[in-house]
Amino acid sequence: MENLTNILTIKDLLSRHGFSFSKALGQNFLINPSVCPRMAEFCGVDSGVGVIEVGPGFGVLTHELCKRADKVISIELDKRLMPVLAETMAEHDNFKVINEDVLKVDLHKLIEDEFKGMKGVVCANLPYYITYPVIMKVLEDKLPIEAITVMVQKEAAQRLCAKVGTRDSSAITVAVNYYSEPNLLFHVSSGSFMPAPKVDSAVIKLDVSGEPRAKCKNEKMFFKVVKAAFSQRRKTVLNSISSGMGIAKADVEQALNDSGVSLTARAEQLELSDFAKIADSIYERGNKDA
Ligand code: SAM
């Protein structure tokens, strides 16, 4: 297939397939030729590696992944793109597309069926409207993969890669840091897309090859505490956990004391291990399903 970042090639595909970009599906396609090869290099594809891609669009990133990986499975919701991909990806026999909503796909089964004996990675230019749900699904499912390399909006990248315990951190920062080691790789200007979105983007990589980065007795409780702590981020964690989880203030006070956390601390000041200790204390004190 001709260069898929070339405007004339894209216009030709648009007109021959009667395709128009859907804003609702986050369809901003990459036209900057340097971005996809860089993403493919950074994401760790090689022979012996299987890639899950979310939202191939016309296949511009898919093409770079197929050149390097043993197998690429792309999940695309938009049925109108099936005939386009059949044309643009015809030269790659290591490519397969699944026409489904990524949030409904059983990714464990997909990896088991498709990537036998291969290492797995996820690489995608994500549709912005489901950035966090897709990332959390991949992390929470604890897939047997090495890394997740994705393009997201710049603000989301900053939030996802913020340091836990700083003002930029939030519940999603803590969640992502619990499961992975996040790194911001490079920025991508809005002019690199067609149509151009209003904001710039960035490529991030989440290394998921290790164990969770905090030890806790019950993950569900850990995430409940994190969510409640950040639900009213201007308040102290004492107040936000108490009201967010419906636990008496005296009990939360006890949990904070057990954990060595100041009663006046706010969520953005806590480390991963602090959240884990607070969750363990609440859990052990009998609030097993608070
Ligand atoms: N990979 C292409 C590129 O870089 O030019 C397209 C990226 S575009 C930002 C996002 C893609 O995700 C679109 O092709 C869109 O149709 C697809 N998409 C949107 N929602 C989806 C969903 N729930 N499941 C799978 N794909 C989805």
Write the layout of secondary structure elements.
Elements: H1 7-17, E1 29-30, H2 35-42, E2 49-54, H3 60-68, E3 71-75, H4 82-88, E4 95-98, H5 107-114, E5 119-125, H6 131-140, E6 147-153, H7 154-160, H8 171-179, E7 181-188, E8 193-194, E9 201-207, H9 219-231, H10 237-245, H11 249-259, H12 272-284
Parallel strand pairs: 2-3, 2-5, 3-4, 5-6
Antiparallel strand pairs: 1-8, 6-9, 7-9
Helix pairs in contact: 2-3, 6-8, 9-10, 9-12, 10-11, 11-12
Order of helices and strands: HEHEHEHEHEHEHHEEEHHHH
Note the gap between the termini: 55 Å
Query: Helix share of residues?
Result: 25-40%
Q: So, the CATH homologous superfamily of the largest domain?
A: Vaccinia Virus protein VP39
- How many helical stretches? 12
Bound molecules: S-adenosylmethionine
User: What ranges have pLDDT less than 50 throughout 5 or more consecutive residues?
Assistant: none
Give the integer mean of the pLDDT values.
Answer: 96
Estimate the strand proportion.
15-25%
Number of domains: 2
Widest β-sheet, arrangement of strands = 4-3-2-5-6-9-7
What fold name goes in the CATH topology slot of the largest domain?
Rossmann fold
Q: Tell me, briefly, the overall form.
A: elongated
- Radius of gyration (CA) equals 21 Å
CATH architecture of the largest domain: 3-Layer(aba) Sandwich
CATH class of the largest domain: Alpha Beta
What structural class is derived from the secondary structure elements?
A: alpha/beta
Q: How many strands? A: 9
